[in-house]
Amino acid sequence: MTTSPKDIPTLSDLYSSNEIPQAENESKYGYDEGLNKRVSIWRGDITKLEADMIVNAANSSLLGGGGVDGAIHRAAGPDLLEECEGLGGAETGDTKVTKGYELPSKYVAHTVGPIYSSRAVDKCAKQLKSCYQTSLESCQNHGGGAIGFSSISTGVYGYPIKDATEIAIETTRNFLEKDQSVTRVIYVVFSKKDEEVYKSIIPQYFPPPPSASSDDNQQE
Length: 220
Ligand code: APR
Prior knowledge:
- 40% of the residues lie in helices and 16% in strands.
- By secondary structure, it is an alpha/beta fold.
- It has one domain: Leucine Aminopeptidase, subunit E, domain 1.
- The protein has a six-stranded mixed beta sheet with strand order 1-6-5-2-4-3, sandwiched between helices.
- The longest helix is centred in the middle third of the chain and has 21 residues, at 121-141.
- Bound molecules: adenosine-5-diphosphoribose.
- Residues 45-47, 57-59, 65-71, 113, 150-157, 188, 190, 194 line the site of adenosine-5-diphosphoribose.
């Protein structure tokens, strides 16, 4: 059973149905309904997502592993590994694209996230930002459409989920403002906790419509 982006609510839908909590902090970006229709948070298995591209949290060998990497290789079948064997690995922060094979998605973007180190926070942040940026560019270069992201580096690689999510969402906002080819970014979260983190942070970068109540205040 696969899930198509058209069956996944957008952020605009989630705001309308009050499923996003009030922003914890002041929004850093302006309200943009068009952008809010191009972003989703979806709790599910990325190997079941029928997107144009899904993003794998790979390692530098690009030859598979555990976690989401293992799930994607198992679901895609042996041809994925065969194509990966010809890629020659990748540096941290870089992304290489393969076909999706037996996955419902057309392509897989294999991005190599940083192994988190509290002694190199700035370097890790730059590398993680590059993972999201180069993955989005890969989608743009492969015809655009819908891209599903797993939460890069936040599992085995130990990146604190809140810090990683800030980077993921801010990089996406800045990219979508300049690009029209990527029609939907779906953050695929694998736990309730991660879903709550994404929902608590996203209003800072993709704010909700100005609320009617604040308009009322202005009329008084
Ligand atoms: N669908 C969506 N998300 C998943 C799935 C899945 N089927 N399986 C795991 N996840 C989530 C995890 O819960 C975590 O939030 O993907 C996120 C990334 O976790 P990891 O897979 O551990 O990836 P990462 O932290 O980037 O570590 C990468 O782990 O598997 C190895 O080969 C991989 O060496 C690399 C390292």
